Amino acid sequence: xxxxxxxxxxxxxxxxxxxxxxxxxxxxxxxxxxxxxxxxxxxxxxxxxxxxxxxxxxxxxxxxxxxxxxxxxxxxxxxxxxxxxxxxxxxxxxxxxxxxxxxxxxxxxxxxxxxxxxxxxxxxxxxxxxxxxxxxxxxxxxxxxxxxxxxxxxxxxxxxxxxxxxxxxxxxxxxxxxxxxxxxxxxxxxxxxxxxxxxxxxxxxxxxxxxxxxxxxxxxxxxxxxxxxxxxxxxxxxxxxxxxxxxxxxxxxxxxxxxxxxxxxxxxxxxxxxxxxxxxxxxxxxxxxxxxxxxxxxxxxxxx
Length: 304
What we know:
Blueprint: H1 39-49, H2 64-80, H3 86-91, E1 97-99, E2 116-118, H4 126-129, E3 141-145, H5 154-164, E4 170-174, E5 190-193, H6 198-202, E6 205-210, H7 214-222, E7 226-229, H8 234-245, E8 249-251, H9 259-271, H10 273-287, H11 291-303
Parallel strand pairs: 1-2, 3-4, 3-6, 4-5, 6-7, 7-8
């Protein structure tokens, strides 16, 4: 969490009675959220996420899980000077919970009570940091990205080249650290890079072939861009399934996707008037959710 528009300093929840080191408000809760650069925090989150259901619902788990997390929690506690109970990572619902998706995207969203504030995504400065514009302003843009983790998929990128090498799209394709030479001859309509400024590309995109990570899913919907999802892991499959259920795109199977099925799915999503109407509604919902600014307001109201 960040302290809204006031600062780019990562928000740290400190021990009860202490104040936020950035904004000075307090006291805060007796939990800590480490900055994203903390590898120990990421490891704890990853291990906990393996025992969660779609979009954050906790599944039943055996007690040995808390024992397995104990060493990591102790190490984290020693480094940051806070008490971190393994059981509380998984089972305790806080009095205030900020949820970075709109309620409408959350399955059974109406079952979450007033402790959960759905504030939607926050693009922050990324929305304007890096510019990008298509070489041909008249050609429709197709954005292809499998994110930053599970992106070593040369066979999938070759499928994309086969599907769209002859048009009609101007394709921006992110391939991470993959050697582009592995993909063979590149059509002139393809712009292939290790990464793109995603918000800048999505402003121009007619469709997004995505792994359906939550960040990418929310940014695509923020710009009203239809999703053709090819999830690479279970969490992404949950996001992809929800997007399809809400009529915001189509989900394909990474193990069976072909150039023909991919090309057909993109054509359907980009041209379907019902999908377009659903995207317009969801874009409005997301932009009215408030993002970081509303999150700061909610936190300050809670602390009064």
